[in-house]
Write a structure and sequence with these properties.
With 237 residues, this protein is α/β, with parallel strands linked by helices. The protein has 9 helices and 7 strands. The chain has a 7-stranded mixed β-sheet with strand order 3-2-1-4-5-7-6. Helix 5 (77-85) crosses helix 6. The model is unreliable at 4-25, 27-39 and 56-73 (pLDDT under 50).
Length: 237
């Protein structure tokens, strides 16, 4: 059973809120036209329709930019729930590369009190994410183009990433990793949750102050995945 659409208010710093892209601007006139057939539907019906539309377009986005999307299908429900579990206990969550929203839906449902920020490269998917989860602060663009969004988030923020670092072009991967490093080094209370399909760590940090640890193996995903957590290393380990 899919989780309910989380529409409660959420906390977060004023600076972070000032950077939020207006969801009405993301939706635009074209979005309003596409919703005419749902004018009599409930909010839950609209959210479900938006999620269905996202699933329908994910493969098309993969065909257009396979190196940037990284997979033919969205993350499985089991992997998405595993990622969400490791985002527990934070004041804010920022999702990097939300894609079709397969992980977004569980982040919104499982953590209704955490401020939710989403960064998505595809403008079409960003608009749909904003419609499906109106309480989320959705930003369109690559992560390295939205560095100010991460830097302005509260001290206790977790980044949940589906970015395919192993397939990204080298210059894009390096720029993105640099932004993530600054985010993690900004406060000791920050973490990164990332999955990979290989046995190796998702990517190497330039700073020795940051370290990966393997959180869990998700066998019920195609292909099986490993959930990793990166954070500032504890002195003495």
């Amino acid at each position: 059973m899919p989780p309910p659409d989380s529409r409660h208010g959420a906390g977060g710093s004023r600076a972070a809120q000032d950077l939020v892209v207006d969801s009405k601007a993301l939706q635009g006139a074209g979005a309003r036209d596409s919703w005419r057939t749902l004018s009599g539907a409930t909010d839950r019906d609209r959210a479900r329709a938006a999620r269905d539309a996202l699933a329908d377009t994910f493969f098309a986005h993969f065909l257009r930019a396979p190196a940037l999307v990284g997979g033919i299908v969205p993350s499985s429900r089991v992997l998405a729930r595993a990622m969400s579990r490791h985002a527990t206990g934070y004041d804010a969550i920022v999702e990097l590369g939300a894609g079709g929203g397969s992980i977004t839906r569980w982040l919104a449902a499982d953590h209704p009190r955490a401020a939710l920020t989403v960064i998505e490269r595809s403008p079409e998917m960003a608009r749909r994410l904003a419609r499906a989860w109106p309480r989320a602060h959705v930003h369109h663009g690559c992560v390295h183009e939205r560095a100010e969004c991460l830097e302005s988030l509260p001290a206790r923020t977790v980044a949940v990433s589906s970015l395919p670092f192993r397939s990204l072009p080298a210059d894009l991967a390096h720029a993105t990793i640099a932004v993530i490093e600054r985010f993690l080094l900004g406060h000791r209370g920050r973490s990164l949750v990332q999955y990979s399909y290989g046995l190796r760590e998702p990517f190497a940090f330039g700073s020795t102050a940051l370290a990966w640890r393997r959180a869990e193996r998700v066998w019920r995903n195609v292909p099986p995945a490993i959930v990793w957590i990166a954070e500032q290393a504890v002195e003495g380990r």
